[in-house]
Every structure is written in C-alpha cells, then in structure tokens.
Amino acid sequence: MTIRKAGHTVRTVCRLAIAGALTLALSAGAVLTTTGSASASKIHAIGVVTPPAPPDRLEPASFREVHAYLYPDSTGRAGGYVSCPQGMKAVTGGATAAAPNAGLLTGLTPTYDGNGWYASAVLPLWAPDTGVLDLEVICAWPEQLSSVATLTRTVQAQYDSSIHTTHYRDFRGCPDGKALFGGGAFTTQDGVIVNAPSGGSGPFLNAMAPLGSFWVNGSAKADSPTTGVAMESYLRCIDPFQLGTSVSATASGPSRTDGVQTTVTAFCPSGHTAYTGGAYWTDGHGSLRISHISFNRTAWTAQGKGNNGASLQVEVRCIRTDQVATPPVIATLNSVPR
After folding, report:
1. Which residues, at least 6 apart from 17, have a Cβ–Cβ distance to it below 8 Å?
2. What is the pLDDT of residue 129?
3. Burial letters for 272-308: b for 16+ Cβ neighbours within 10 Å, e otherwise?
4. So which residues are the signal peptide here (predicted)?
C-alpha cells in the first residue's frame, strides 16, 4: 500500500529531499561517494572557475604630464631631471632645446629607477634670456608598468677619419617575449655626465628612436675621440600583454645638405595615444634640437639640422586611447577536479 500526503507520495518526497541535499553538496564543492557496487564511484562538482587576474595594462586616460624648465649656465650647458608625481612611474619623455633656431640635445633618457626623465643640451650663449631646456615626462600608475625592465650598455667611440667625426651608436632589440617600450642615451667622461652644467664638452644626439623591432641610440662629435668619453645607452622593454596592441607610424623629412632646421611629425592613427617615439638622422649626419610627444599625445615631433644628404626620420608607437588598465575577467564553467 502506498501512503499519499499533500499530493506526493512519501517515496517522491524522499527523492526530492535527497536531490536537494545533493544540490547543496555539489554547490559547496563536495565529493560524494556511492556504495552498493564492488567499487565506490565519485561525483565531482561542476563549479565556476575564475582565472587569475592579469596584470594591469597601460591606460592612456590615467597618464599625467610633468614639465621642468632648465636654464643654462654661463657656458650654455643645461641639464637635469624631471620626476613623476609621487607614486607614479615614467612612460616616456621628451625635450626641446628652446632657443631661436638653435640648440642641441646632448642627452635624453629615462632615469634608471623609472621615476622620471633626464635631458641635457647646449644652448647658444647669445640667447641667455630666451634659451631654456624644456623637459617633459609622461607618467602612469606603477601597476601598469610592473613588467618594464631597463637594460643598459656602455658604448665606446668609433672615429670616422673621412669626415673627422666621432660616433657612438647602439642598435639592439629586447629579449624574446618582450616588446620595445623606449630608450635613450647620454654621454659621460670618466664617470661624469658631460654637457650638463657640471660636465665638460661632449657629443650631441643624432638618434634616439624605435626602428622596427630594434631601438637605436646615437650621438656624434665633430672631432677626434676624447679619452674617457662613452655613451650610456638605455633600452626599455615591457610584457606585450601589459602594453596592449601597439601600432606604429613613421614620417620622413627631405635630404639635407644645407644644415637648415627640419621639422618632422609622425601621427598616431585615429583613436590612438602615443606612448613612445623618437627620431634619427640617416647615417648619423645631423643633430636634434627637439624630440618629444605632441601636446595632445597623438604624435611625435622632432626637429634638427642635417648635412651630407641626411634625412630626418621620425617614428611614433601608439596604443588605443580607450584601452583600460583592468579588462573584465571572464569566468568559465569547468569541472573541478578533486
């Protein structure tokens, strides 16, 4: 005889109770064992698996810009640092040797600790009231730059007797699995930075730029090598995921034989923000007065004087302006092994 209660049989009620208990056990991730056979069998829970959060990406909306205005000493040399706001790290930097149609950049590089940017320049003595070195740095939160590594190298002089010029050149790429993120260079003599107010007279920059999968730093001096002078070359690399999808744009100036100032600008595609860039003279026959990101961070501009048929080349690297630091993490349904 079957006893009925509230529209269900006792057997049905018992089945519902067992099913409810099983559901609760599975939602708690329990492992149940059934008996009644020669060997016990296990029931594994089906749960929601959330992957570990990836590192933050560069987020252009969070970038901050800081300027420093460095004035020359009595010899026309200017140099110094600009630091990011407290708690932030440098993304990129640039400088302008601001004097009427004159001035030479002699150093432009990230600081080794990643907290700012350094620049040095030679400004004309006839412009003491208008000559200034305008140095800028673009900064982001450190979580967006956690994978950045700075690689350094000391480059010795190479003398070209045919044109009586001493060159310093470094051309290299990042290790496998890393992406170019920037770089820079300055010169030292016996361990002291030259062309800064406390330093001596040294080479001027003619290259500091991305070039395909490589970065090139270069400087030159129209003279024979000076004992103890070397170029310190910096290369910055980043995890490609943290960088996001990068695109590049290039622009070229005309060949120069007259030493006239040439200005070239490379623009990011629409909807993108610049995160690094630079310029170089072909064959190293030229100097740089300006190399910096544009005021709205959508381009890179360089200016300088070239000779011997050299042309000024500019490249800018860009990421999407709407890229956010923390993309949503997608949870997936997977079996949870026990």
Report:
1. none
2. 60
3. bbbbbbbbbbbebbbbbbbbbbbeebbbbbbbbbbbe
4. 1-30
Position 223 scores a pLDDT of: 85
Q: Say how far apart CA 185 and CA 108 lie, in whole Å.
A: 6
Whole-structure pTM value: 0.80
Domain ranges of the chain: 4-43, 60-320
Per-residue H/E/C for 39-92: CCEEECCEEEECCCCCCCCCCHHHCEEEEEEECCCCCCEEEEEEECCCCCEEEE
Counting every residue, how long is the chain?
338
- Candidates 272, 94, 266; CA nearest to 182 is 94
pLDDT for 74 equals 84
What CA–CA distance (Å, rounded) separates 324 from 278?
25
Q: Is the dihedral of CA 53, 57, 62, 68 positive or negative?
A: positive
Strands 179-189 and 8-9: unpaired
Tokens of 226: 């000076």
d(C-alpha 116, C-alpha 212), whole Å: 25
Ranges of beta strands (E only) in 222-311 are 229-238, 247-252, 261-267, 272-281, 286-293, 299-306
| pLDDT for residue 160 | 87
Low-confidence stretches of the chain (pLDDT beneath 50): 1-47, 49, 331-338
Q: What are the phi and psi torsion angles at 242 (to 5°)? A: -70, -30
Domain 60-320 annotated CATH 2.60.120.690:
yes
Per-residue pLDDT of 210-243, as tens digits, reads 999 999 999 998 888 888 899 999 999 999 999 9
| pLDDT value of position 192 | 86
Strands 132-140, 192-193: parallel, antiparallel or unpaired by DSSP?
unpaired
